[in-house]
Amino acid sequence: GCNSDSKHNNSDGNITKNKTIEVYVDRATLPTIQQMTQIINENSNNKKLISWSRYPINDETLLESINGSFFKNRPELIKSLDSMILTNEIKKVIINGNTLWAVDVVNIIKSIEALGKKTEIELNFYDDGSAEYVRLYDFSRLPESEQEYKISLSKDNIQSSINGTQPFDNSIENIYGFSQLYPTTYHMLRADIFETNLPLTSLKRVISNNIKQMKWDYFTTFNSQQKNKFYNFTGFNPEKIKEQYKASPHENFIFIGTNSGTATAEQQIDILTEAKKPDSPIITNSIQGLDLFFKGHPSATYNQQIIDAHNMIEIYNKIPFEALIMTDALPDAVGGMGSSVFFSLPNTVENKFIFYKSDTDIENNALIQVMIELNIVNRNDVKLISDLQ
Ligand SMILES: Nc1ccn([C@@H]2O[C@H](COP(=O)(O)O)[C@@H](O)[C@H]2O)c(=O)n1
Ligand SMILES: [Zn+2]
After folding, report:
1. Which ligand 1 atom sits nearest the alpha carbon of residue 338?
2. How far is the C-alpha of 253 from the C-alpha of 233, rounded, in Å?
3. What pTM was estimated for this model as a whole?
4. Phi first, then psi: what are they for 68, rounded to 5°?
5. Tens digit of pLDDT for each residue in 320-354?
6. Which atom of ligand 1 sits closest to the CA of residue 130?
7. 377 phi, psi to nearest 5 deg
8. Which residue, 105, 180, 211, 342, shows the most beta carbons closer than 10 Å to its own?
9. What is the interface pTM, i.e. ipTM, of the complex?
10. The Cα angle at residue 278 between residues 275 and 279, in degrees rounded to 5
């Protein structure tokens, strides 16, 4: 009959009775890129409410094609979601968020639960980037009894934040604890963290049935329409870069730049000078003879100075490196300054070296240590800027 016809729309045109609403929120880059590809891949008819801080979507045709509405901020999204739940028969809300910023998801759940309509809730979390792994590393260093104690409190902690009796603390046990309350999937940047030697067995026990390795190879199965949709979402098309790779027969190298918080332009110029030497005792994986590309940090203001000093080919710094990964526009090799970028890089791309700030204590630096544990870099290829002096 008509009422059971899942494709039959009500007067709103896009929300049907007993339907599911999909919510997408993120303040960073990686979850947004992953959520975009998920939307394109699943191609569902569900109404989608989206708020991505770094990727405002203004293209109405694009939004219509995914049955989506975009919100400048999360409070506006929540207001709209609440009114949909109150005025329509919404069966389920699937919330897609950023793991590190699980507090944003808590605020949405809080609002849904406060309506008292018993709406089903399902959660998808996508890692923000390297931050979760630094925290996981630190967590793994705690005595097992302490880890277990913390985990034992997490369900109540989350519940109290949803009830509004306690602010949400984004500790490891809390951000990875939602499967104790709702059907949850954690889309992890590096699900293999649980296969390393780091002692994380208690946490693994809580979430092992709820984790998925983030996918980077969607483009191998996307048709041209889906690819174009991704280019429209991100405003990025990899064709130019792919042409530049092919312009010479040499292998391609991308230098991963940082911002002034970590290194000056001169220091990065010096690293490149050293890396070009065929027999440097410091950088043993030389970049001599490779075509040199420069991918500056999105927030760096001195990129042109570095590009000019070594006559490199520029990759527009505002493009998130993850967009190159997603669109299969990767070089043969990379190297550069410590960055979250290295966490998502497939191991088919050679990682020649990573440089850190001069005063870094390598053996006690959680970020470096977790990168070594995950085989992102060899200990010998971890360098400090001061190694050059
Ligand atoms: N050369 C770079 C460096 C960074 N990005 C993007 O910024 C995000 C955060 O990187 P951090 O270096 O601050 O850890 C990263 O996930 C990339 O999206 C970049 O595109 N190019
Ligand atoms: Zn080339």
Report:
1. 12
2. 27
3. 0.93
4. -115, 155
5. 999 999 999 999 999 999 999 999 999 899 999 99
6. 14
7. -150, 150
8. 105
9. 0.97
10. 95
